[in-house]
């Protein structure tokens, strides 16, 4: 009976809340003053107020210059499936086609420029007297 009670007390002491698992900590970027220099650091907390409180406790009120929340980064590598060789080949061919279209556009612009320059040169030639 006593052993069961001790185990139950231990469970209460280390009980996790569900939001600790479902809502991960946010990362905040802080600009602080340390020994006369401005530095950047990060801190993880539930919200901006808690992040600022942690930073003020560590660095002092006058040394915390700015605190902003960083964009959350998801683990995209786990959700993106690798391409099959056939998909990679199709993507490569599509990229090549796009590059060739860009080259064609540049070549057409170059030809049009040469034609315009030739017309300008012809227009600037003095006319022959009769």
Shape: elongated
Strand order of the largest sheet: 2-1-3
- For the record, give the distance between the C-alpha atoms at the N and C termini, rounded to a whole number: 127 Å
Describe the largest sheet. 3 strands, antiparallel
Counted beta strands: 3
- Could you name the ranges where pLDDT drops below 50 across 5 or more consecutive residues? none
Structural class: alpha+beta
Helicity range: 55-70%
Textual characterization of the structure:
The protein is built from 5 helices and 3 strands; from the N terminus they run ααββαβαα. The chain is α+β, with helices and mostly antiparallel strands. The chain has 2 domains: 16-69; 84-124. The protein has a 3-stranded antiparallel sheet with strand order 2-1-3, covered by helices on one side. A hairpin with a 2-residue loop joins β1 and β2.
Task: Show the helix and strand layout.
Elements: H1 2-13, H2 18-22, E1 26-34, E2 37-45, H3 48-59, E3 64-69, H4 76-79, H5 85-124
Notable characteristics:
5 helices, 2 domains, 56% helix, 3 strands, 130 residues, three-stranded antiparallel β-sheet
Short account of what is shown:
The protein has 130 residues and is of the alpha+beta class. It is built from five helices and three strands, in the order H-H-E-E-H-E-H-H. It has a three-stranded antiparallel sheet with strand order 2-1-3, with helices on one face.
């Amino acid at each position: 009976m006593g052993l069961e009670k001790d185990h139950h007390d231990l469970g209460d002491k280390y009980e996790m809340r569900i939001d600790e698992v479902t809502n991960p900590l946010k990362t905040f970027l802080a600009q602080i003053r340390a020994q006369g220099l401005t530095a950047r650091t990060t801190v993880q907390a539930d919200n901006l107020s808690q992040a600022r409180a942690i930073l003020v406790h560590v660095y002092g009120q006058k040394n915390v210059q700015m605190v902003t929340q960083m964009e959350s980064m998801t683990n995209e590598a786990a959700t993106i499936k690798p391409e099959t060789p056939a998909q990679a080949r199709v993507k490569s061919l599509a990229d090549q086609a796009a590059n060739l279209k860009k080259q064609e556009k540049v070549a057409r612009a170059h030809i049009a420029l040469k034609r315009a320059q030739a017309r300008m040169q012809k227009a600037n030639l003095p006319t022959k007297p009769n």
